[in-house]
Design goal:
The chain is an all-beta fold. 0% of the residues lie in helices and 54% in strands. The strands form two sheets. The protein has a four-stranded antiparallel β-sheet, with no helix packed on it. A four-stranded antiparallel β-sheet has the order 5-4-2-7, with no helix packed on it. The radius of gyration is 11 Å and the shape is globular.
């Protein structure tokens, strides 16, 4: 199991996957807004989304876990 974490603090503006979705390494899974820029967060490994720990509009901290893959 692996975790996808926020590279920096910001606001979640788009969660692109849901539990059960298959993702490949490099797929965009979340879009964050930080410092007035949109920042795509990508999967660092392939797998299936087990749990999404954020929702659109949430504020997240740097290194905060956004979702887990299995």
């Amino acid at each position: 199991m692996s975790e996808i974490a926020a590279p920096m603090g910001g606001k979640v503006i788009d969660v692109k996957v849901k539990p059960g979705d298959a993702v490949s390494e490099g797929d965009e899974v979340v879009i964050l807004e930080a410092m007035k820029m949109e920042l795509p967060v990508v999967a660092e490994a392939s797998g299936t989304v087990k749990e999404v720990k954020c929702n659109n509009g949430d504020t997240v901290e740097a290194e905060g876990v956004l979702m887990t893959l299995e």
